[in-house]
Every structure is written in C-alpha cells, then in structure tokens.
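Form P-L/3: holo structure prediction, ligand flavin-adenine dinucleotide.
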Amino acid sequence: MNDNKSILIIGGGVIGASIAYYLTMNNCNVILVERGNICSGSSYGNAGLVSYANPKPMAEPGVIKKVIGWMLDKESPFFIKPRLDWELLRWLLRFQASCSEKSVKHAINVTRAMKSVTMKLSEEFTTEEKTNLYWEKKGRILLYKNKGSLETGKKTLDSLKQYGIDGKIMDLDGVLEMDHNVDSSVVGGIFYPDYEHVLPEKYVKGLVLMAEKKGAKIHTETEVIDFKTSGKQIERVVTTRGDFIPDQVVLAAGCWSPMISKMLGFKLPIQPAKGYSVTWKAVESTSKIPISLVDEKIAISPMGEFLRFSSNLELVGYDSKINLRRVRAAQSRVEGYLNGIKDLDLVEVWRGFRPGTPDTLPIIERNDNYDNLILATGHDMLGMVNSLVTGKLVSEMINGEELSIDLSPFRLGRFW
Ligand SMILES: Cc1cc2nc3c(=O)[nH]c(=O)nc-3n(C[C@H](O)[C@H](O)[C@H](O)COP(=O)(O)OP(=O)(O)OC[C@H]3O[C@@H](n4cnc5c(N)ncnc54)[C@H](O)[C@@H]3O)c2cc1C
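OUTPUT (holo model):
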C-alpha cells in the first residue's frame, strides 16, 4: 500500500528508469539520483534487445574451455586481464559453479518466468508510448557461415519449440530475400519473428520522462558519496549536491553498485564486463531487421537513422580503455557478413560495462543488512530485456503487492 513515503533510486540507467516509471505509476514519491546524465552508463550504447528467443545463460557446460581458447587470441571477443584480484577469482569460481547442467536449467526457467511477465508488461504500453520509447518488433535473423553451426542452431530451434518459440530455417536465398546486404559466403540463417528491440537512449529517457510527468524528481550530476546509517536503517544519503533523507533506498547503479554497497559495509559479487559497440549513420539500403552473427558473438541492430553492432566481453576491472584492435577485428567480421558496411559514416565507437553476476541472473531483493534498502542490480547481459519486470517487482515490493514472480532466485544470499 502506498503511504507516500519517499523512495530514492540510485542510478539513472535502464533499471533505475524502469523502477521510477512503475513506482510513479503507483503514485509513489520518487527521487532519482544519477551522477552523470540519464542513460550514460551501460544502458546507453548497447544492442537494444528487449526480448529474446534463447533463454540460455552465458554460463553453460563447455564455456570455460571456449574461454581459454579465446584468451590466447588477441582479436577474440572475450578477454580476462590476468591479475591477482581475489574478488575476480571468487567471481570466476562462482561462474564455473554456475556452468553445470542443473544451474543452466534453473537459469532458463527463471529467465522464462521473467520473460512472460515482461511480455505482459510491454503489451500495457500504448502504440504511441511504444513509438516514443522506440520499441519495435522486427524479429531477428541468426546468420551462419559454418554448416556445423547452422545444424546446432537448428537443434536449438527444435529444443525451443517445447517453450512455444518458433523460427524459420532459411538457405542463403531465403536470407537474401529478407536482407539483400548479406554476403554470399553465408550458408543460411534462422529467423525468429518474436524479437523486439529499442533504441536504448530513447527508451531509457522515455521511461524517465514518463516518471517525471507523474511527479518523480530527477537529479542528474548528483553522485552518491556516503550514507549515514543507524542500526538497520539508512537515515541519510549523502550526495555531491547535498543530503537526502528518504524512507526507502533502491540501489540500481549497475556495475558501480559494489562501490556503493561497500559504503554500506557489504559486498556484491558483480564484475564490470566491458563490451563495445560501433554506430553508423544508416542509409536507405542498410539492413532493416536485427541480426545475430552467432559464431562471432556479434549483434547488429538497425535503430532508425542508425545501424549499430555490439560485441565483446572483457573482464578488465573498471579499465575503460577502448581496445581498438578488438573493435576493428569485430568490425571486419561484420563486414564479412554484410556488404556495404565500409561505406557507412561512423557516428560513435562506445564502450560500456555490463554489471556481471556469476550466474548471469540479477540481484533483486529487500536487503538483509538494512530494512529500508532494496537491491536491483547485476543485470548482466540482459538489463534491457529484464528492465520492465525489475521495475514492476520493485514497485510490488515497496507497495506490499503480490509479487509477479518468486524472488528467491534473485537473492544475494545465493552466492555465499
Ligand atoms: C555491448 C553491450 C551490448 C548489450 N546489449 C544488450 C541487449 O541487447 N539487451 C540487454 O538486455 N542488455 C544488453 N546489454 C546489457 C545492458 O546494457 C545492461 O544490463 C544494462 O544497461 C544495465 O542497466 P543498469 O541500469 O543496471 O546500469 P547502467 O546503465 O550502467 O546504469 C547505472 C547508473 O548508475 C549511475 N551511478 C553509478 N554510481 C553512482 C553514484 N555513486 N551515484 C549516482 N549514480 C551512480 C551511473 O552513472 C549509471 O548511469 C549490453 C551491454 C553491452 C556492454
């Protein structure tokens, strides 16, 4: 029940934005503090996928072997900077533990439950709201150059049918009918019609604007630097622009959440997982349907006047350097699948940090250490996909409503 107590959200990425949106829909008194501008973290330059067909997490049997192979290749999509970092080591051990068949099955079930809530929530937006959020349903083509990988893709499609997910298998001619830019070296593809995507910046800013219209107070350039606590209560949130005295605090600061939890005296097992994107100005002939280059771990997203590819996962701590060799290697792989890329004008090369958890599931809970703290962080590779369900769940928690899904898979305690 809403008694109009004040709720302060830390972080103006997609997660903070969605929480602000659902709380204000429930007439809550919301304050959002963001140390930079809205959507300036990982939510800015990502691939914009808000739905997916394959709910398999990255942690799965066999992935460790692949990772070791990639580590030896300076142009591969994956890299771990070798260093003595106990937090990283602990994280990697937990990641390894999450690669069992049992953990993967668990993650698939949890992800599917989140997906079904997300689908219902996305239907609640009006057509006009979806246009403002730049929300599109165009499906996704998975492209293959390797016949063996295409066969694996077909098996995945077969296994997804039990969940009601269908797709269309195509040879090169079929692929070319959908996208004439595809190179003739491609042997085939699979089209999944149910994929939806957004232009991330428009989506996040759109949610914040809707929250602001319903009364949320948005404070940008406002960094949380400390807290005053008393027992199990956060009494004061200290920021670079003065103190706030909220009744509830929601931590939604993405990969920077561990720094904030440290101020509160507890740890979060989140590693920044750096990724890159390259955005070009689209022209009339550019691809119109999102594409996945499965073997290359690259997503290509048409976003209105832009075309973007995103790729790579580097565990290098908070080192924000752009490794141009890896970006160029990824770009040349894109050029090997799609013709005409070389002629496009560059808009931006970007790097961002996914808030990575060892089992790829987020941390969403009322925290044990403080009665008035909710954690909504660690969304890993699926923060856009799981944004609506997270916002809804936090609003349900705060308003004492029945929860859309069981929160036990998201408890922080699962890692200890
Ligand atoms: C290359 C790439 C492609 C991706 N593609 C997809 C995709 O297609 N679909 C998908 O679902 N996910 C994707 N992701 C993952 C997705 O981007 C993240 O899961 C998501 O953006 C996390 O959102 P967030 O709000 O938790 O974090 P962020 O967007 O990083 O927001 C956290 C905010 O907290 C603020 N903050 C930090 N510290 C403080 C402080 N002390 N005080 C105040 N504010 C603070 C930061 O400035 C930041 O704005 C991708 C990620 C990458 C890198």
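COMMENT: The mean pLDDT is 94.
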